């Protein structure tokens, strides 16, 4: 079976309906490598992963808020235009969803974030969450049909995870020796344990006005947009019931080589690294 939920209008913020499909920086980079836009469409966060995260000489074990603010500024420089979307999605193997249904009461449970991304990220091995993506293909306005994480995709209306009762945080900005970059964001319901964790450690973003992921009220309805030129990895900090969305099988390929699970950040990239004094 194919996609069960469609994406929202592809019209970009401030643009007209006829110009939304123009490729941005990310799409041109991905196309040059014969790849389409692929976000973290639902990888598992695993405690410690392979346990051998390398430390760059210029990085301290944990970024402070001011360091993350510097990373955020760098990420904003390449975020690009904002495109509309309406669903978050998570890809996994069939066995994962079978386990959720049979042994977890049909509820996906948060797991501990792995060591992917910046070595100084305060979320690695500390924050519990569920990975989602929201990136859409520039030529269709729909979620991509390929994924590194499995052929089965859970799609959930964006308002179920992201609304005025949710806080949004910037968590990381990195690349894996590639031309395109990943931005890690955290969605946490206000007052939740995840929200309290992030409030102490991560820069908070205005949900209606930022360069990465927005939720705005327009003509009485919630409208969602994502950055065109960054691949967003969205961590939701609370359990998610499968009954709130739709599960289907994608028609594309499973490209394991593009997985970011425990991915090590390129310490030489000038676009996404900062200097942190000891």
Automatic annotation (TrEMBL):
Q: Does the keyword Transport apply?
A: no
Q: Give the record's GO CC terms.
A: cytoplasm
Q: Which UniProt keywords apply?
A: Glycoprotein
Residue ranges occupied by any Phytanoyl-CoA hydroxylase-interacting protein-like C-terminal domain in the UniProt entry: 61-278
Q: Name the domain of life this protein comes from.
A: Eukaryota
Region Disordered: list its residue ranges: 1-23
Q: Which InterPro entries match?
A: PHYHIP/PHYHIPL, PHYIP/PHIPL_C
**Pfam families referenced in this protein's UniProt entry, alphabetically:** PHYHIP_C
Protein name (record): Phytanoyl-CoA hydroxylase-interacting protein-like
Please spell out the taxonomic lineage of the organism that makes this protein: Eukaryota, Metazoa, Chordata, Craniata, Vertebrata
């Amino acid at each position: 079976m194919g996609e069960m939920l469609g994406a929202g209008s592809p019209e970009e913020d401030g643009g007209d309906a006829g110009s939304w499909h123009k490729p941005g920086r990310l799409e041109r980079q991905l196309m040059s490598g014969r790849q389409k836009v692929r976000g973290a469409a639902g990888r598992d966060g695993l405690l410690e992963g392979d346990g051998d995260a390398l430390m760059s000489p210029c990085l301290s074990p944990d970024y402070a808020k001011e360091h993350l603010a510097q990373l955020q500024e760098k990420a904003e420089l390449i975020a690009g235009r904002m495109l509309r979307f309406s669903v978050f999605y998570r890809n996994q193997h069939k066995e994962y969803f079978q386990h959720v249904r049979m042994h977890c009461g049909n509820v996906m449970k948060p797991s501990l974030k792995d060591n992917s991304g910046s070595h100084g990220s305060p979320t690695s091995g500390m924050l519990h969450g569920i990975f989602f993506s929201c990136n859409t293909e520039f030529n269709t306005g729909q979620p991509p049909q390929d994924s590194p994480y499995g052929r089965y995709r859970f799609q959930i209306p964006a308002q179920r995870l992201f609304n005025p009762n949710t806080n949004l945080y910037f968590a990381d900005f990195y690349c894996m020796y590639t031309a395109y970059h990943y931005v890690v964001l955290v969605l946490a319901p206000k007052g939740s344990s995840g929200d309290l964790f992030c409030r102490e450690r991560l820069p908070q973003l205005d949900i209606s006005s930022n360069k990465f992921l927005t939720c705005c009220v327009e003509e009485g309805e919630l409208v969602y947009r994502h950055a065109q030129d960054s691949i967003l990895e969205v961590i939701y900090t609370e359990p998610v019931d499968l009954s709130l969305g739709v599960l289907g099988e994608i028609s594309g390929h499973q490209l394991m080589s593009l997985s970011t699970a425990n991915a090590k950040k390129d310490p030489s990239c000038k676009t996404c690294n900062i200097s942190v004094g000891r």
